[in-house]
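Protocol check, entry for the methods section draft. Step 1: assemble the input record (protein sequence plus ligand SMILES). Step 2: submit for complex structure prediction. Step 3: store the structure tokens unaltered in the notebook. Ligand used here: copper (II) ion. Step 1 record:
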Amino acid sequence: MNDIVNPLKGIDLTFIYIIGFSLVLLVGVTAAMIFFVFRYRRSNHPEPADIRGNWMLETAWTVIPTLIVLSMFYFGWQSYIGLRDVPPGAVELTVYGQQFSWIIDYPNGKQVENEMVVPVRKPVKLNVTSLDVIHSLFIPAYKVKVDAVKGMETYLWFFPDKEGEYEFFCTVYCGVQHSEMNGTLRVVSETEYEKWLNQD
Ligand SMILES: [Cu+2]
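Step 3, stored output:
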């Protein structure tokens, strides 16, 4: 189970990559602008020059940004694939959104409300649907979110690599008690999970 690539890493890297380029461009463009303001100010350069096409420059400023944006797309796409490809051997649960709580079904028939218990270091797949209106399941700690729609099954998966308590909640306004539609995700050890699963 240790060969699972946690898609969170890819997402974080993509984020840093995009922020990095944005910072370089922000600083670069601002610096060039300030430089030009001084270099070509009126006292220095009273007659404006009539500059026409520069093949090299135009090609460079078209090709380089295109490559940068395509590489951003590539990293984003890679992490997206990671979020959609569920590794084999995942713990599979069914989650029903309803006004105003989350019902979680376990493979052995156990059913709980607003509480999700999963074993640590095992991929977890949640098959999500709704019993009434559109809800959306969001687990901020694992950066995953998916809509819950009646008559449709959506899914998400995450890799809980650390034991602990996290929150999940509905992100789509679904009625007057929408704000109460949240629950706790508990990531526990394998033995604790088995014990919890088999008690009523
Ligand atoms: Cu809801």
